[in-house]
Design a protein that fits this description.
The chain is of the alpha/beta class. It has helices at residues 18-24, 32-52, 75-83, 103-116, 131-137, 152-173, 200-206, 243-252, 262-278, 301-323, 335-341, 350-363, 380-394, and strands at 5-10, 56-59, 90-93, 96-97, 123-126, 179-180, 185-186, 235-239, 255-258, 290-297, 345-348, 368-373. Helix 3 links the parallel strand 2 and strand 3.
Length: 411
């Protein structure tokens, strides 16, 4: 048996005294001095997580958060900085919103990061659910945000995600490529190629085979550098409700990252095994599964409630709730009870946390678990204390199969 691989996922939630304090400080996301302080204290948490033995440290891609909730516009820059700091942990993000991204740029950036970390790097991908920025940054490809509602916009987003992810994999794994998708062509225009490329002679002689045709036009491209990890870094894909995403991940060998209640995770994790088997891939239950939770580990049960109220209520009530109707948020709701019932928050005392996490891995023996704290709404020292308690007191009690050992069984 083994322990789940722990990923610490944190992003700056710039601190305020509840929604009222956030309104009074508007626009908090533009507070340069506060962001500067939070950014550099964040480095201390990354170092601590590495010292405690987490498998990975991660952040997000979210833009335009003037309210200061999720100030995470450029995960690659942070990952590059962290590459010079961590000694053992993987770094990555959860993740690049592919419908808004140029897949060649993502392939280049992540390949460099893979080299900087000497292969201790993972790539997270997401479809994008926040219309304020997804629709703006994705406008040139026709991207729109989605909540997995099977609408026309949802299907368009899924098609864009699949197209650009397919191209990302090709960029990583093929010496040269050409691609004609619904929204992206390589070269462009695809039918003629890049006509009259001035340096076609040296490209034909020193570049990849087929890159230049007999007329001197560019007909294929070679994305450089090649990743350090072969065939490419591990790929995680965020999912909040869609069975289609689970089937897609199983077929592609990607790692679904579950932002959903436990009952749904249990069902989807079984679907993953079944879909992988249908594709001729043998997976054990829990293998390549990543369960996301927002934890607190506190001295008393009352302190758990206090931290939910002070550190999580604002974003749950005013941001998560409006986006995700599956989380109770109606007027008059007891929001502390609702957060516990949402099944995305987990915690209490050390023993309560051990019991709750034990129940989770008994249902889905997940290879990975991702922990999110709303830093810096929750102060750095409290994140550090809770992470230390999790790694030293809770994690040692959690048994899952040793998925890194192909000869090990589930017992």
């Amino acid at each position: 048996m083994a322990r789940p691989k722990v990923i610490l996922q944190i992003y700056p939630m710039l601190p305020a005294d509840g929604a009222e304090g956030r309104i009074a400080a508007a626009p908090l996301g533009r507070d340069r001095e506060l962001y500067h302080q939070v950014l550099h204290e964040w480095t201390d948490l990354v170092r601590l997580a590495d010292d405690l033995g987490v498998w990975g440290v991660s952040t997000i891609e979210h833009h335009l958060h003037s309210e200061g909730y999720e100030v995470g516009p450029n995960p690659g820059v942070l990952n590059g900085y962290w590459a010079a700091i961590v000694k053992n942990a993987y770094i990555g993000s959860l993740g690049y919103v592919m419908a808004t991204q140029d897949p060649i740029r993502v392939a280049e950036e992540t390949a460099i990061l893979d080299h900087l970390t000497r292969g201790r790097f993972f790539v997270g991908l997401a479809r994008g659910y926040q219309s304020r920025w997804t629709n703006i940054l994705g406008q040139h490809g026709g991207a729109v945000a989605t909540l997995g509602d099977q609408s026309d916009e949802d299907h368009r987003n899924r098609a864009l995600f699949a197209e650009r992810t397919e191209m990302l994999i090709k960029c990583w794994t093929e010496e040269s490529l050409e691609f004609k998708g619904a929204s992206y062509e390589v070269p462009f225009p695809h039918d003629t190629g890049v006509v009259g490329y001035p340096a076609n002679r040296i490209a034909a002689l020193a570049g990849t085979s087929g890159e230049i045709d007999d007329t001197g036009s560019v007909r294929r491209v070679s994305v450089v550098p090649k990743p350090y990890t072969l065939p490419h870094p591990p790929v995680f894909v965020a999912t909040s409700k869609s069975p289609e995403t689970i089937v897609y991940c199983a077929e592609q060998g990607f790692i679904p990252t579950y932002f959903m209640p436990m009952k749904a995770i249990a069902e989807h994790s079984q679907l993953y095994v079944e879909a992988a088997a249908a594709a001729g891939i043998d997976r054990r239950h829990g293998e390549r599964q990543n369960v996301v939770r927002w934890p607190h580990i506190t001295p008393t049960a009352a302190e758990y409630d206090r931290r939910l109220r002070d550190y999580d209520l604002d974003i749950y009530q005013n941001f998560y709730g409006p986006f995700f109707p599956q989380f109770p948020n109606e007027p008059g709701t007891d929001h502390i009870a609702a957060m516990k019932e949402s099944d995305i928050f987990i915690g209490g005392t050390v023993q309560q946390s051990i019991d709750a996490w034990g129940d989770l891995v008994s249902q889905v023996p997940a290879e990975y678990i991702t922990l999110i704290w709303h830093y810096a709404q929750i102060p750095k020292d409290e994140v550090a204390e809770e992470l230390t308690l999790f790694m030293e007191e809770v994690l040692p009690t959690l048994d899952v199969p040793d998925f890194d050992d192909p000869d090990s069984g589930d017992e």
